[in-house]
Protein: MerR family transcriptional regulator
Amino acid sequence: MGHFSISDLEQLSGIKAHTIRMWEQRYGLLRPVRTATNIRTYCDDDLRRLLNVSTLCGRGKRISQVACLSDAEIQAAVLACCNDSHDYHQQVNALLAAMLSFDEQRLNHLLNEATAWLGFEKMMLFVAYPLLQRIGLMWLAGTVNPAQEHLLAHLLRQKLLAATDALPCVPTSARRWVLFLPANELHELALLFMNYALRARGQHTLYLGQNLPTAELHAVCETYQPDAVATVLTSQPERGKVGEFAREVAAMCADKLVVLYGPLARQEGLELPKNCVAPELMTDFLALVGEHEPEPVAA
Structure:
């Protein structure tokens, strides 16, 4: 069970702490317990209920009406009202609540609906990524169950693979990218999305996936002759070794564009080789790809 402070609830739900306290006191919405030092702490059920209530209130329901509903009635109402393709915050809240409940069927339903409304790429950018960022905050607070995160990551991975497989084949004469994760790096979702986005834009990718020793890149570049190389640095290499890693990759791919994405690539004071770039956001990476798309051939 998670143990959340009221500031955790505020950050995760978007509801101000004073509003949460008022709902708790006036409507008995949440049932915190107090520590030995008299500090309120909240559990998974409290967070789940608050997320669902936030969703309904965001859709115009009155808190006095919502607070009278059972958990089952609240969940049913949330599922019925999450049909606004532009209300990303409420979609993220609904998905987070479903993840916390281990409700795979509802998670799948919500992701499929968001994809139908927005298209796959926008679903990933405006719904899945904010959801993953919210979960990242929960990791930092030590309040997310690894099994809950694995459930969501597995579903997203399945959808990324299926969406990529459904794209038309790209000729090998197109602009070429090598995509890989460094040694011991296992966080693959961002790289899988980059693979999808590049192929959707008519660019050829050689996807090498997780845990590739840096020394292998030289032979890959010699044989495949890519135009660019991209990797995602989430937990590897160690923070103090990122600069060394960047220099090694840049040297092996001296005449190539090298894209380093992820939190470790954006350290303050990190100096990168001239052929390396570190886009801050995924939308920045997509803009970079657009800059290098070939000009259309005149008829």
Notes: The beta strands are 33-34, 40-41, 176-182, 204-212, 228-232, 257-261, 276-277. Confidence is low (pLDDT under 50) at residues 295-299. DSSP finds 13 helices and seven strands in the chain. The first helix runs from residue 6 to 13.
